[in-house]
Fold:
Amino acid sequence: MLDPHGTPASGYDAFIAAPMSGLPGKGYAAGRESVLGVVKQLAVVYGMDQVYFAGTDITQPGGFTGEEKALRQDLEALRAARLFVLIYPDKIVTSALVETGYALALGLPCLLLARDAADLPYLLRQAVDVRARDLLPPLRIRRLEDTAGAAAQIAAFRDAMRGDEARHA
Amino acid sequence: MPDDAAPNGIAGGVADVAKSFGVGGTALVGGLALIGAAIWKAPEIQDRTTQIAVLIGSLVAGALAVLVGWLLLRQATHGGGAFAGNPAGARASEQIATGSTTENDVFIAAPMAGFGADEAGRKAAVELVRGVEVALRQLEHIRIVYTPLLARPESLQYETPATAFEAELAALRGAKRYVLILPESMPAGTSVLVTTGIAIARNIPTLILREGGRELPFLLEGAVQSRDVKVHCHPYTNLPGIQRLIQNNGLRLFGN
Structure:
C-alpha cells in the first residue's frame, strides 16, 4: 500500500543512499545496476520488500531533473525508513553524504558500506568510536563487497537492530 | 572540516608543547635553585641586615619563578588541545564530556580535505573562514561563532576522527545558524556534506556561499530551491565580496 507520495504505509525497511548524479555516464549505469542488484537480493533472499533507492526509476544520468521534488521525496522516504544504508564505493562528492547527515540527525540506525573505511569522509571514519552515544544513533561501518555480500551485511544489520529493539522492549 | 591527517601539524603541536615545557621548566628549576641558593648561602653573609634582605629577596623571586613555571607547565599540559584559541570550540570540548550542548550563534563549515602538506592552501582557507567569521561577528545577535577550521588553524589537532566528530556534533546540536563555504574545487568525500545534512535535518537556517560558478551537489541544489527547508545560497568571488554581502544583508541571508 502506497500513500499519495509513493511511501508505503508500513514505511521502508531500508533507505539506500549511493552516489548517482555525480557519476559519469558509464559509471552511473554500473553503479545503479550494482545497487539495484542489492535491492533485489534484499527482497528475494531476506524478505526486505520495501527498500527505497532514489535511482530505481532513473535509468540514465540525464534523468536527474527537479531537484526540489527529488529532495522532498528523499526526505519523506528517510523519515519513513527504519534503517539507513550508505553504499560508498569510491571517494566522491555526492548527495548521498548529505542524506547520511540527515539520517544521523533523524536518529536512524546507519550502516556505512565502503571498500575501505579511509575512503569515508574524515568525520565518519571512526564514527563507531564516538563516546557520547546520545549524539549518534546505532551505527556500523562494514567493508563493501559484492552484491550478495552487501545484501547480507544489510540484512544482518536489520537483524541486529531488531534484536536491540527486542532487548529494550 | 578535517579530511586528512597532517603529520607536520602534529610535529608543530609537539614543538609548541615542548616550547612551553622548556620555558616553564626553566623558570621552575631556576626558582627552586634560587630558593636553595638563598637558604644555603645567606648564613655566610656577615652583615645581618644584608643577610635578611638577600634571603627575603631571593625567596620571593624564587617563589615567583616557581609559580610562573608551574603555570606555564600547566598550560602546556591542559591548554594546548584541540580547541586552543577557539572559545566556542573549547566549550564544545568541555560539554561533550558532560553530554550537554554548545550554544553557537553560527557554525561555519568549509572543506579541508586534500590540503595535506599544502600549507598555503590551508592558510588561504583559514583566512577565508576567519574573514567570514569577523564579518558575521559585526552583526547583531552574533556573538559565538564555532568553526572547526579556526579551532586548529595551523593544522589538524584532533586526536582522532571520532573526537572531531563528537566536537562537531555537539557544536551542531546547539547551533542557531549554519554557514557552508564551498570553494571552486570541492574535495571528494568531504565531511562538510555530512554536517550540512545534519544541519538541514535539524532545520538550522543554512547559508551556502559557493565560489564562482561551482555546481552544488544535486540534493543541495534541491534544498536551495525548496521552501520546506531553510537553505539559502549566494555565489562569491572573493572575501571582500562575502564581507560586503554579509554587511549589506545581515541575518536576512539566513532567511530571518
Notes: The helical segments of chain A are 25-46, 67-79, 95-106, 147-168. The radius of gyration of chain A is 15 Å. Chain A touches chain B through 46 residues (CB under 8 Å).
